[in-house]
Amino acid sequence: MANEPNDDIFRNLAKAMEEMIRNLPGDESPRFVGCTIISGSGDDGRIFHMDDFEDEFDYDLVEDSDYFYITLELSGEESDVPRVEFLEQEVRVTIDGRDFEVPLSAPIHLGQCRYGIKNGVLDIICRKLN
After folding, report:
1. pTM of the predicted model as reported, rounded to 2 decimal places
2. Which InterPro entries match (predicted)?
3. Which residues contact 125 (CB under 8 A, 6 or more apart)?
4. Residue 94 near residue 85, CB atoms below 8 Å
5. CA angle 24, 93, 74 (to 5 degrees)
6. Could you tell me if 36 and 29 are in contact, meaning their C-beta atoms sit under 8 angstroms apart?
7. Which of 70, 65, 69, 63 is nearest to 130 (CA)?
8. Above 80 in pLDDT, residue 7?
9. How does pLDDT run across 64-90, given as a tens digit for each residue?
């Protein structure tokens, strides 16, 4: 099969993407928010809904001199009540068997942390270890 005219463009694009991803700053793995590539003619193509692959854990983290306040909105589609585990410098939330970590900038007092769920919102309060 003959090369398509755009094969070189896509090959170069893939190499550029690999180089950009390899050189991203930070320790976290990169995530793709969305991408569309349309090439050639023929079939109608396929559509992938990003929500099907979304593995996001969105939360708000606020701190003052004594406490960390973590808030996240639940989707309402959870089959189980979320489980919250307090670790030395992290909070682990388990929702439907998936673990999500919330790293904290300071150690917390494990005996003085609490959480509650009201109106689909999970509120977590952690006292800083002084």
Report:
1. 0.57
2. HSP20-like_chaperone
3. 67, 68, 69, 70, 113, 114, 115
4. yes
5. 95
6. no
7. 65
8. no
9. 999 999 999 888 777 788 899 999 999
